UniProtKB/TrEMBL annotation, chains A, C:
Keyword Cell cycle: yes
Gene3D superfamilies, per the entry: Winged helix-like DNA-binding domain superfamily/Winged helix DNA-binding domain (1.10.10.10)
The keyword Amino-acid biosynthesis belongs to this UniProt entry's keyword annotation: no
Region (Disordered): 183-220
PANTHER family in the record: SEGREGATION AND CONDENSATION PROTEIN B (PTHR34298)
Name of the protein in its database record: Segregation and condensation protein B
Organism: Roseovarius aestuarii
GO biological process, alphabetically ordered: cell division; chromosome separation
Swiss-Prot/TrEMBL keywords: Cell cycle, Cell division, Chromosome partition, Cytoplasm
Domain of life: Bacteria
From TrEMBL, chain B:
Domain of life of the native organism: Bacteria
PANTHER family: SEGREGATION AND CONDENSATION PROTEIN A (PTHR33969)
Designated name of the protein: Segregation and condensation protein A
């Protein structure tokens, strides 16, 4: 809709000069704690603005400064340079201590996404407790992805923009060691040959419940 | 489980055994399933996971389970299922392959187990690397004073003509009810009028308009005046009947006058 | 205290170059939840730092940018450039129904104009809040009329052209009278029958009063 308006009104309103657009992006990004998408930027800037280009200039401007312009997924944010972390008071947000199970589950979701609960269990060799997934969902580090087109159409999990933001990742492809893991074939979902014991089977009930509940949610 | 072990403590000969047993108990609690246990055991081989001897590993695992049994530690079903499978795998690996047998070979199964261990190990390392990254709120920071977008909610108010009229009707209706309560005061009863007339009539030697007998407060408000006029007129007639006053009216709608009858 | 430590340890630790100090100030000012004093900045920066000087540079750097370095009391903060304040606002228009109090007040003004606040209160039987009148004034549905020639010369309220336009009225006299309201079924709360024989007439009175009131009004 915004686009339509743009093209229609382009002739009526001239977009501000690029320098001004850069200032506007700067002001908007400075003002918020959350990453802002190009779309959102443009919806707040005068018609005909090209936020993507303004961001290129802005990113360059902040290179090497005390704060930097960073890309988080398909959004942008200003963050302090990480080499200056020592200056900051940490009292701010003490992230809840994650259990080892939660950390592993998170890593598996990040590296294997989109991944089903059964797949996580297969990798960890143990059932994934509901609480672990709930905690990660609650922190908004993971969310539900598309259903897998396999029997039972199980739900999958993927990581979120908040996760990327938290770990300073531009996108999930930047996960440390991802390439190496992939080329080593360790991100493949290799089905166990024959009679291997299915680990974490105990929890299938819980999983079924979950997927059932979500069925309705995701049907579209 | 701890009760069991406590009972068993006396059966251990020395402190070292006891310590080992305790470590075992703690560890079983600490393991995240049989795969995790296998991964831990594999470390004792001190080789790259790719070169691990699965046969050796199977033996270690089965040994662990035996020991747990001896200590009467109840292992979760998962661990026992894995033990059974590893026993099967061990026999497959030890016996020469039977060409009539179907399904994956012992080597294939062993390879998959090795893969699983390697993958779990890789995920552990990845998790560690992930958690070691610079993190928001710890190593880099977001805006401390966010100037959040003020959602200017421009509220426009509206009303329809119907709302307006209903509103007015509501007030006026309330008015109608007010007299309903007040009108009890607004009514000047015949008894009141009689009493008032009896008191005043003594002074009425000449013809006087009965409207001048209306009490204070009943002369301006139309409703009250009507009420008082009516009751005063009725009271006058009552007094005429008693022979105490005379009453007259010169023509239709002319003032009605009364005077004392001597 | 900070000063003491500084002077003592100055020889031991070399202050970082001014460019670095500027970066540090920038990061601290960006991330801290309150404006920061020079003293506070220096207590967080390496010994021997000169925050005041770094701020001079930083201020210059942000001149004309989308955000500026501003002094707040004796502390410093990064704030949106004042000309870009409009970007920090998202306007959403929500249409709400006028409150009952406002509608009634408006109705009284429309039917009885020019009417003083005291008269409105008398008719409504409750006091009229300032907010209600202000709201109607702000909407430009009512305005101040002539002062009444009674003791105290109270101000009066009348309805505006905007009001008439909104309600599709040519003038306030077009408002339906009580009888019409009743025949339209808008006056429902009829008193219990037989309780007050004069009531019917009372109505007319009220109506007469109304038209009287309006007469005065529109005489000019």
């Amino acid at each position: 809709m915004v686009d339509d308006v743009d093209s229609e009104e382009e002739s009526l309103f001239e977009a501000p000069p690029m320098g001004e657009q850069e200032r506007m992006c700067e002001a908007i990004l400075f003002a918020t704690t959350e990453p802002v998408t190009v779309r959102e930027l443009e919806s707040r800037m005068p018609h005909g603005s090209d936020a993507a280009e303004a961001l290129v200039h802005l990113r360059k401007r902040y290179e090497g400064r005390g704060v930097n312009l960073v890309k988080v997924g398909d959004a942008w944010a200003i963050r302090t340079a990480s080499d200056l972390g020592f200056l900051m008071q940490r009292e701010t947000v003490e992230t809840r201590k994650l259990s080892r199970a939660a950390i592993e589950t998170l890593a598996i979701i990040a590296y294997h996404q989109p991944v089903t609960r059964a797949e996580i269990e297969e990798i960890r060799g143990v059932s994934v407790s509901r609480g672990t997934v709930d905690q990660l969902l609650e922190m908004e580090w993971i969310r539900f992805g598309r259903r897998k087109m396999t029997p039972g159409r199980p739900v999958t999990f993927v990581v979120t923009q908040i996760f990327l933001d938290h770990f300073g990742l531009e996108n999930a492809r930047d996960l440390p060691g991802l390439k190496e893991l992939r080329s080593a074939g360790l991100l493949e979902n290799r089905p166990p040959p024959g009679s291997m014991p299915q680990l974490g089977e105990g929890d299938t009930d819980a999983e079924e419940q979950t997927s059932e509940g979500q069925n309705e949610l995701f049907e579209d | 489980m701890s009760d069991n072990t406590y009972d068993n403590v006396s059966s251990f000969d020395n402190v070292a055994d006891r310590m080992a047993a305790e470590a075992l108990i703690v560890d079983v609690d600490g393991f995240e399933g049989p795969l995790d246990l296998l991964l831990m055991l594999s470390r004792t081989q001190k080789v790259d996971l790719r070169k691990i001897s699965v046969l050796e590993l199977a033996k270690q695992y089965l040994g662990f389970v035996e020991k747990a049994k001896a200590l009467r530690i109840e292992l979760a079903a998962d661990y026992l299922v894995m033990a059974a499978w590893l026993a099967f795998l061990k026999s497959r690996l030890l016996l020469p392959p039977d060409p009539t047998e179907e399904g994956p070979s012992g080597e294939e199964l062993a390879a998959h187990l090795a893969f699983q261990l390697e993958r779990l190990q890789a995920m552990r390392e990845a998790a560690a690397k992930l958690m070691a990254r610079d993190r928001l709120g710890r190593d880099f920071f977001a805006r401390g004073i966010p100037e959040d977008v003020t959602r200017i909610k421009r509220v426009t108010y509206t009303a329809t003509l119907l709302d307006l009229m209903q509103g007015y009707a509501r007030i006026r209706t309330k008015d109608e009810f007010r007299p309903f309560v007040m009108d009890r005061d607004a009514v000047f009863t015949l008894e009141q009028a009689l009493e008032r007339m009896r008191g005043l009539i003594g002074f009425a030697g000449t013809w006087t308009d009965i409207s001048s007998y209306l009490p204070d407060g009943f002369t301006t408000d139309p409703a009250r005046r009507r009420s008082a006029t009516a009751s005063t007129f009725a009271a006058s007639l009552e007094l005429v009947k008693e022979g105490k006053v005379e009453i007259r009216q010169s023509e239709e709608f002319a003032p009605i006058q009364v005077r004392r009858k001597d």
